[in-house]
């Protein structure tokens, strides 16, 4: 998936991954991260998710990264917030009270640009990337945030029956990416209603990653 794949998705409004409501797993399991209101939560590949508004309403600060400027413009319109837009290195940074969203390639971010991160919320981010990119992405998150704890929402299904994205992430794969730095525990799972893309039975899982060594 190159950048043009995602730009086209946003331009054509082919954004079935976008949820109209706040994610249930976020609401139920965010507390397991054990971060207090005021903490800064990184949302990689954030799109215009409504989960941002929910986190802000709970008193958290949000820092996001998203390729599509269109998505970020729509995010701020829906939040009814008028952002300040500044240029930082190779990104535009849309910023308002309690929210910083970097527009550009997440792989071009540095720890200095992102700043302090107390937790990561990964919904439809890891699963959006092909395997080789997932390996780079998981290491990037570790480096960018000094092993901040994570809530990861992923899918598991028979990859031979459907092309990603979203890609299937097995438990083994998740452990391969993260077990050196985190204790990993599955918090919950449910069947995807009506199958994934209406075609393949799939399970959606939420994982808690607590750092052990960094
Ligand atoms: C499957 S969507 C998920 C969006 C959001 N997390 C949600 O739950 O609605 C993946 C998003 O990642 C963005 N994206 C893909 N590759 C990216 C990259 N390298 N850097 C930043 N954003 C990226 C896409 O534009 C898209 O909005």
From TrEMBL:
Gene3D superfamilies reported for this sequence: Vaccinia Virus protein VP39
Pfam family, one: TPMT
InterPro entries referenced in this protein's UniProt entry, alphabetically: SAM-dependent_MTases_sf, Thiopur_S-MeTfrase_Se/Te_detox, Thiopurine_S-MeTrfase, TPMT
Subcellular localization(s) per the UniProt record: Cytoplasm
UniProt KW Methyltransferase keyword: yes
Keyword hit for Lipoprotein: no
PROSITE patterns membership: SAM_MT_TPMT
Residues involved in S-adenosyl-L-methionine binding: 10, 45, 66, 123
Family the entry assigns: Belongs to the class I-like SAM-binding methyltransferase superfamily. TPMT family.
UniProt-recorded name of the protein: Thiopurine S-methyltransferase
A biological process term (GO) from this entry: methylation
EC number, as in UniProt: 2.1.1.67
HAMAP family: Thiopur_methtran (MF_00812)
Keywords of the record: Cytoplasm, Methyltransferase, S-adenosyl-L-methionine, Transferase
One MF annotation (Gene Ontology) recorded for this entry: thiopurine S-methyltransferase activity
NCBIfam families according to UniProt: PRK13255.1, TMPT_Se_Te
Catalysed reactions, semicolon-separated: S-adenosyl-L-methionine + a thiopurine = S-adenosyl-L-homocysteine + a thiopurine S-methylether
């Amino acid at each position: 998936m190159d950048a043009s794949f995602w730009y086209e998705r946003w331009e054509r409004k082919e954004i079935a991954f976008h949820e109209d409501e706040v994610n249930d797993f976020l609401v139920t399991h965010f507390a397991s991260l054990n971060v207090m209101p005021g903490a800064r939560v990184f949302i990689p590949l954030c799109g215009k998710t409504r989960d941002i508004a929910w986190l802000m309403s709970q008193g958290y600060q949000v820092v996001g990264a998203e390729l599509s400027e269109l998505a970020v413009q729509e995010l701020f319109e829906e939040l009814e917030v008028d952002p300040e837009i500044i240029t930082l290195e190779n990104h535009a940074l849309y910023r308002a009270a309690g929210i910083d969203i970097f527009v550009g390639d997440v792989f071009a971010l540095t720890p200095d640009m992102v700043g302090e991160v107390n937790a990561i919320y990964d919904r439809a981010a890891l699963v959006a990337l092909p395997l080789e990119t997932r390996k780079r992405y998981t290491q990037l998150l570790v480096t960018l945030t000094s092993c901040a704890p994570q809530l990861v929402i992923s899918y598991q299904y028979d990859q031979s029956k459907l092309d990603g994205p979203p890609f299937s992430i097995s438990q083994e794969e998740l452990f391969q990416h993260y077990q050196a730095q985190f204790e990993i525990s599955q918090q919950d799972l449910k069947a995807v209603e009506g199958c994934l893309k209406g075609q393949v039975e799939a399970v959606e899982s939420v994982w808690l990653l607590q750092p052990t060594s960094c």
